[in-house]
Design goal:
23% of the residues lie in helices and 26% in strands. It is α/β, with parallel strands linked by helices and 291 residues long. Strand 15 (194-201) and strand 16 (207-211) form a beta hairpin. The two termini are 20 Å apart. NADPH dihydro-nicotinamide-adenine-dinucleotide phosphate (NDP) is lined by residues 100, 132-138, 140, 157-158, 162, 184, 218-221, 262-263.
Length: 291
């Protein structure tokens, strides 16, 4: 969004938070962003995005927004240090995979624990993986992981999947996918990398060990939209509601990336919606020049 806004010569200010770069910055390798035929480290890609936005005059500050007032333009955006007034706002606050909050999860994140099979599945060629969850994401990604892994073990806390029937049929028919029902993962084990998980059957209380090279956690995403509760329309899962041109329900406020996307969650789709949001902001500012 900032690249397009800056290049349209709109004075553009990015409050990027204290850890700029978003989810790509936490991804080891991005293998599917166009233009990088050999892949690119997520951190490097994020830095390249930043450099490109700055080349067009965007000012990027490492400030976390603490409060917004979107009741009427000019809108007010406050961080701990500053208050900004803006004629148009693009919300691109992203989403975070929900975490299990169990021992070993933080320690092995990016070294055997992942929430992105599209990003990391490739590293599990002929290996064994555990997938935690029973929704569409867990089953869709389990099916994807069978392209690489020898065996995919889905650990689900109930005895019935939440995922749509077609995914269930495909997963039950796939000889590489096993299910461990009524069970939760209580600990991720390993030394340099993951070697296994400890599970507990929630019916019997019995604990077991499963040997594995990787753990993919798909227990839902959390859009980072809490700042906008009561100011923008959110859906029942907390995603900001957008039309196909990235408009929110407030004229002059646009939205891009994972905070409005429960489905695709890819760097390329986020970047695409960012470009649209900025072009729509430019159009909006041209239509209301008195702003
Ligand atoms: P969901 O909320 O649909 O599913 C989350 C799953 O994780 C549920 O099975 C839930 O169990 C389980 N879970 C939640 N918390 C815990 C926990 N603490 N410990 C263990 N298990 C837990 O999230 P998804 O990310 O799967 O999907 C989000 C949205 O995106 C949905 O609307 C989905 O349809 C959509 N989507 C669509 C896809 C597609 O069509 N290709 C692919 C991916 C997502 P329980 O069932 O017991 O609640």
């Amino acid at each position: 969004a900032a690249i397009y806004a800056g290049r349209a010569r709109i004075p553009t200010h990015v409050c990027a938070g204290t850890l700029p770069g978003g989810q790509p910055a936490n991804t080891a390798d991005v293998d599917n962003f166009p233009g990088f035929p050999s892949g690119v480290a997520g951190g490097e890609l994020a830095q390249r995005f930043q450099g490109q936005a700055e080349r067009f005059g965007t000012e990027i500050v490492p400030e976390t927004v603490t409060d917004v007032d979107l009741s009427e333009p000019p809108f007010t955006i406050r961080s701990e240090r500053n208050a900004y007034r803006a004629q148009a706002v693009i919300v691109a606050t992203g989403a975070a995979p929900r975490r299990l909050g169990i021992p070993g999860e933080d320690q092995f994140y990016g070294r055997g624990v992942s929430s992105c099979a599209t990003c990391d599945g490739f590293f599990y060629q002929d290996k064994q993986v555990v997938v935690v969850g029973g929704g569409d994401a867990a089953i869709d990604e389990s099916l994807f992981l069978t392209r690489f892994a020898d065996k995919v073990t889905v650990v689900h806390r109930r005895d019935e999947l939440r995922a749509t029937k077609i995914f269930q049929e495909q997963a039950f028919a796939n000889p590489k996918i096993d299910f461990v029902w009524d069970s939760v993962v209580e600990e991720i084990l390993g030394e340099q990398t993951v070697t296994g998980v400890r599970t507990r059957n929630v019916q019997s209380g019995e604990t077991s060990m499963i040997e594995t090279d990787g753990v993919f956690v798909y227990i839902g995403m959390e859009p980072k939209s809490s700042l906008f509760i009561g100011q923008l329309e959110l859906d029942s899962n907390g995603y900001i509601v957008s039309d196909r041109r990235q408009h929110t329900n407030v004229p002059g406020v646009f939205v891009a990336g994972d905070v409005q996307d429960p489905h695709y969650r890819q760097v390329v789709t986020a970047a695409g919606t960012g470009a649209i949001a900025a072009m729509e902001a430019e159009r909006y500012l041209g239509k209301y020049p008195h702003h």
